[in-house]
Specification:
Layout (H helix, E strand, L loop, with lengths): L1 H21 L6 E4 L1 H9 L3 E5 L3 H6 E2 L4 E2 L7 H4 L8 E5 L4 H12 L5 E4 L2 H7 L5 E2 L1
Parallel strand pairs: 1-6, 2-4, 2-5, 5-6
Antiparallel strand pairs: 3-7
Length: 133
């Protein structure tokens, strides 16, 4: 009985150790509220990245944002031109494309990545300022 118990404990510990080594790493970006996003925009050493289409960006965008279209086939190459030392603040319309963009930024070794929860739609819902053409 004692041997069986020891075997079970060993198997259990083995499985626990295996699962901890095989887990995928946590996301290297943080999804934040409009309030937190607005505070970070005010700080130095940040890049405000709008990943919507150029047409969406042309209609309205956050002041100081640069536009790199997530749907552009060259998106991964285009983001390489961003400064990896700066915080990257990413937004889209609803948060879906920006989350995917954050994953690609992470894969490209960016470290300080922040995703706007709810995208510009959440920003507008809070009546926060935008630039319109």
């Amino acid at each position: 009985m004692k041997k069986n118990f020891q075997k079970l404990v060993f198997i259990f510990l083995f499985l626990v150790c295996q699962s901890s080594f095989s887990q995928t790493p946590d996301k290297a970006y943080t999804t934040i509220s409009t309030t937190e996003f607005q505070k970070l925009i005010q700080k130095r050493k940040t890049t405000l990245l709008d990943v919507r289409t150029p047409e969406e960006f042309q209609k309205s965008h956050l002041k100081g944002a640069i536009n790199i279209n997530y749907n552009d086939p060259n998106f991964k190459n285009l983001i390489q031109g961003l400064d990896k030392k700066k915080k990257i603040l990413v937004y889209c319309a609803s948060g879906r494309r920006s989350a995917k963009s954050c994953d690609l930024l992470q894969e490209s070794n960016f470290k300080n990545i922040y995703n706007l929860d709810g995208g510009i739609n959440a920003w507008l819902k809070e009546s926060l300022p935008i630039e319109e053409n």
